[in-house]
Write a structure and sequence with these properties.
- With 185 residues, this protein is of the alpha+beta class.
- 23% of the residues lie in helices and 39% in strands.
- The protein is built from 5 helices and 9 strands; from the N terminus they run αααβββαββαββββ.
- α2 (22-28) packs across α3.
- The longest helix is centred in the first third of the chain and has 12 residues, at 30-41.
- The termini are far apart.
Length: 185
């Protein structure tokens, strides 16, 4: 079995950009990963962007689950989003912003490739812990990017991470003539 079917390791396939599992994000940028995970944990339902057969974007609701060191995407058998991801694994997942307009904990999005997990033992382990309605499709997210945007004082702050690159922080005000970029770990 390949890593794509077992849920263990692997970098997936698709656009050629390096993609990593959630445990790598937590190991490389733990504080940032904690803020991203916390934002997703604030609400149960989020918005998944996948690609239709004609290349147009499809936005649908989804419950994302951080478990066993991975970010899992589960969905009903025969759903259009599952068909989209089986055909083209590229996705973005936007955390539910919640009520109001303050975004006090930031606006979070992750992007990458969804690798369908078909190994019966891995699916059973996930089902025993998460208890989703069965049957279901299970995908493991392999990330190419994670982004958090929030406001601080009079600035919009953008934290961005991608595999092989340190955390990048951009602070911007509407009257700034130029971008200010900081690099972190």
């Amino acid at each position: 079995m390949t890593s794509e079917s077992t849920g263990d390791g692997g970098a997936g396939s698709g656009d050629g950009r390096e993609a990593v599992g959630w445990s790598v994000v937590e190991a490389v940028v733990p504080e940032f990963a904690g803020r991203v995970r916390e934002r997703f944990a604030a609400y149960r339902h989020h918005v998944l962007a996948s690609l239709r057969k004609d290349g147009a974007p499809r936005l649908t609701g989804l419950e994302a689950d951080f478990r066993h060191g991975e970010l899992w995407l589960g969905m009903m058998v025969g759903s259009r989003k599952a068909s989209d991801l089986r055909r083209d694994p590229r996705f973005s997942l936007h955390a539910n912003p919640g009520p109001g307009t303050d975004l006090s904990h930031g606006d979070v999005r992750v992007s990458g490739r969804a690798v369908e997990v078909t190994d019966p033992a891995t699916v059973a382990r996930y089902a025993a812990a998460a208890r989703p309605p069965e049957p279901f499709h299970l995908f493991r997210a392999e990330l190419t990017e994670a982004v958090r945007t929030y406001t601080e004082d009079a600035c919009v702050v953008l934290e961005s991470w991608a595999p092989g690159r340190p955390l990048r922080i951009i602070r911007r005000r509407s009257d700034d003539p130029a971008l200010r970029v900081e690099w972190g770990r």
